[in-house]
Amino acid sequence: MELPVQTFRVTRADLVRYAGASGDFNPIHWSERFATKVGLPGVIAHGMYTMALVGRAVTAWAGSADAVVDFSVRFSRPVPVPDDDEGTELEVRGVVKGQTEAGLTQIDVTATCRGEKVLSQARALVRRPA
Amino acid sequence: MPLDPSFAGRSYPPTASYQVGREKIREFATAIGAADDLHHDPEAARAAGYADVVAPPTFAVVITMAANRQIVDDPELGVDYRRVVHGDQRFEYTRPIVAGDELVSTNTIEEIRSRGGHDFLTMRTDVASASGDLVVTAWSKLVVRGEG
Fold first, then answer.
1. Is residue B125 classed exposed, middle or buried when 0-12, 13-18 and 19+ CB atoms within 10 A define those classes?
2. pTM above 0.90, yes or no
3. Cβ <8 Å between A73 and B61
4. Of A100, A118, A123, B139, which one has the fewest beta carbons inside 10 Å?
């Protein structure tokens, strides 16, 4: 079963706020100069910020904020975030794959940015909505 | 220089306990745009059976990333952090993290592999409550890019 597509806008301000809240101050997430020096296309989103947005999508699908029991992703491609008001957009799709023996629902997730997959093997096990 | 695969299986002493603050959960939830009352309103959390506000699913990384410095900064292992990118991440929860928790992390190097000139370091962090009950296990795979 396919779940409703969810989209999230990501701007530089979001990355700065996430850096402060998470304690991840790696300069590739806020300094264009540093990011390009280490061979990146520019400032990129924290992988864990992308995962957090996917977590929001999953909890919205599950219908409760405490539903996630198991959550895994592979970061397959960076999410570049330009220094403008629009930033970029993350599109998150989910498919219900079925139930585990423990009664959890497995959701397989696809996350794309500008048409390219930025996660692979993204999967969550959630408690069935009450 | 590639990472020494004989470090696989090595465990580190438990970290100092991390006190989960209500405002920290709110700050993190706000930063990721998670507006649900469970993350912000203690009354709503209590009505759902929790002692205080509930952390979003990836909040554990605040604790485990700091705890992982034990491994990443281990001079004997010698990870060049400037070359590190995040490969994989997984969380397996026994229960959600809640404000007021005092959590202790125990790090283990689960796997070290080298492929195509890059090193792959898989760290497991078991996060337990003050009473010793496992709350969440996190696996983080870091890719240390080769110098080539």
1. buried
2. yes
3. no
4. A100
